[in-house]
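Question: Send over one sample?
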Amino acid sequence: MKNYIIIPVSLFLILSGCGKGIEPEPEKKEEGFGGQITFTGTWPDSITRTHIVVFKNPLISASDFNALNLAYVSLEIPYGTTIFNYSTLDSALFPVNTKLTSGIYSYVAVAQQKTINITLNREDWFVAGIYYAPKDTLAPGIVTVRSGEFSENINIICDFNNPPPQPPGGK
C-alpha cells in the first residue's frame, strides 16, 4: 500500500519540479530610449557645450528648469557634429542620474550653453532642438519608458537657422 502512495507522489514532484529545465531566464532589457540628432546650418562660434537633456515634467515656467525635474543629462555632444546617435543607456553627465527608469518624460531636448563654466541656471542655456511626436511640431513630444523596454527613434532636429521656441526663463 505504501508503494502505491510513494509512486504517485514521486511522479508528481518530478513533473511539477521540472519547468523548462535549465533554460536561462529571459534577458531583461535596460530601460530607456535613443535616437538620432541631426544638426543643420552652421554651429554658432559661441557654443561651449551641447547636451541632451530630459525633464520629467513640462517646462511651463522658469522654475521648472531645476535639478529635481531634470531626469538625464548626456555627456557632451562634440562641437560641429552633423549627425549624433544617442542612447540614454550611455554615460550621463551627472552620476546621480546615470540611467532613466520607467516613467513619463515630458521634455527631451538638445540644450547648449555659451558660458565657460557649466551651470544649472536657466538663463545660461538655450534649446537647439526638441523632440516632437511624429507629425506634431507644435508641442514637445512625451516619451514613455515602459518597464523593461527600450524605445528607439526618439529623433531630434537642431536647425540653427530656425531654432525652436525657447522654454520660459531664457535670454
Q: What stands out?
A: The longest strand covers residues 32-40. DSSP finds one helix and ten strands in the chain. Residues 151 and 157 are 18 Å apart (CA to CA). The mean pLDDT is 83.
